[in-house]
Amino acid sequence: MDSSKSTEASPADTVEPASRDVQSRGGAPRALLAAGSALCALTALASVSPQPAAARPTTYEGSAPSCFITGGGNLEICREGSEAEGVLISPAPCAFARGVQILRLGRSEAPGPLQAIFQGQTPIASRRRDEPCPERRATDSRDGGSLRTGRNLEALATTLPPSADRFWVDLPEERAQTRGWSEPTPSAEGIGPRDPIAVSGRDWAGEAYSYVFLLGQERVGAAAPGNDAPEGRRRRGRRQAEADEGGAGPADVRRRVQIEARTLDFQTFEIRTRTPDGYGLTWTPFEAGSGRGRSDPPTPAAVIDETGKPVASACTAPAFETHGLAGSISIVDRTYHYIYTDVLPEDCGLAPEKRRTALYLRTAQDLAGPKVWSAARKLAGPLPPGTLVRMARGKGMQRWAIAYTCQRPANAPGGPVADICLQYTADMNLDGIGALKLYADPVEAGRSPAYLGLRSGGDGSGRYDRSAHFWMTDAEGNLDTPSIYPGKAGFLTWLDRLAPTAAGRDTSSLYGRPVYWATWTVRRIDAQ
Could you tell me which residue, 208 or 224, shows the higher pLDDT? Predict the structure, then answer.
């Protein structure tokens, strides 16, 4: 691939006129950027035994939610009508962004102070920089496999900066449009490398690297050589490449696996790979254009846990229907906490969309070790199918903050529409997570009174899609906020696949769809 494709400004990046267009279709006005900046900072918080989030009053006006109780009964989360929201990115028709993590590094010079890390579109080999940005759809099972990064300044924390592809899966030329392929269901956004999570290395021991964990996929039960390597970076014979271009066949089942990269500057990355003998591990630089007559592309090795097994999803599924391993990584007391959802093993026999999930924990002391993570430990569950949970230590607190996908209750304004829910634990004891009641009964409905009441986005008819949410963290993966919002408890990002594109077209449920941001406020109250 031509190295010019990874320059900092490409036609696939955001444009301000598009952002204004999205706001006119339901996004929050820019005036909200200044809201709440003078709120008081958080105070030290006491801990009590966990209690479920209290039901909110039913008499508030409009769609702006009132406050609700969490954190064992002495924290109150408020999302009043003046709470700040806005458009983070309005992509071009051939671009998308999902899972946007804004990372505060420990230095103000490059690559700091802030880095945006997210999953984006895979570069198309045949497209030149001077060509227009065409409407695009995810027609290849490898599409949506680009790790993208871009440097932010504090004043630009609420608009996405110019970004560039850093690590991706090479795609063939777009022959799909002539074959009559159709885009997968709205929940499918390509298979890897995806869902990046960034966190610093052991800086307390002098390590300079930062790490990014992503999810790839591997085929299960295929006899072809090399099919145990994560999707997209194996050596491809002609027959194998043709099979991939034709989509997943009836016997083409896969599972998610975690892969790992490291960087010093968030521009160049090394990929964790196997040594030539197939047994050891090494770091291999990713170079744009690999595999095009110059050198073989690096083949990521699945991350191994302390038992010697790959960190992999519990269930297999067709390429676009796999689930599991998406989550977050936080450093607490010099220990890495990887907290994620995966399908309950007993549900593997059900259809992918009906498989319940649970929340799991793995820990690590050194991300560069040959066996990175501990064995998985279940923290909570069962949870509804497809649940995404992000966890981090709360800003200025000794508590875990938990943001998760949910539906508003039936008696909420607008009825049971998609939202993002948020709760805090009473302390840093991870066992307290299981004591939280994340969802009201029946759990399968995914409803919770702890919803944030996000206003931005939607299709104009009252439907919303709150996908791939993430937030701003410090270098250790714990909650942080831009300096313009010092009194806020967090800065949330999410993708809305139902919101109109800047061009007003519905060609794709992913490409061109806007990403939004919002803040929230939490305060201590007397325990009830």
Answer: 208
Quick one: pLDDT band at residue 218, thresholds 50, 70, 90?
A: confident
Kind of pairing, strands 317-318 and 357-364?
unpaired
How does 497-510 read in b/e, with b if 16+ C-beta sit within 10 Å? bbbbbbeeeeebbb
Q: What are phi and psi of 5, to 5 degrees?
A: -70, -15
Cα dihedral 491/497/499/502 (nearest 10): 100
486, 473 contact by CB (below 8 A) = no
DSSP of 451-469: B----S---SSS----EEE
Side chain identity at 207, as an amino acid letter? E
Query: Chain-centre distance of CA 512, in angstroms?
Result: 17
Q: What is the CA radius of gyration of the chain?
A: 22
- Enter the pTM of the model: 0.82
Residue 112 exposed, middle or buried by CB count within 10 Å (0-12, 13-18, 19+)? middle
Distance CA 187, CA 150 (A): 26
Query: Which one, of 409, 339, 410, lies nearest residue 374 by Cα?
Result: 339
- Tokens at residue 216, please? 């790839």
Dump pLDDT digits (tens) for 382-415. 999 999 999 999 999 999 999 999 999 988 877 8
Which of 317, 325, 201, 200 is CA-nearest to residue 259? 325
Given a contact cutoff of 8 angstroms between Cβ atoms, the answer to whether 116 and 198 are in contact is no
- Give the amino acid at 268: T
Q: Which two tokens stand for residue 173?
A: 């030329």
Write the pLDDT tens digit of every residue in 198-211.
999 999 999 999 99
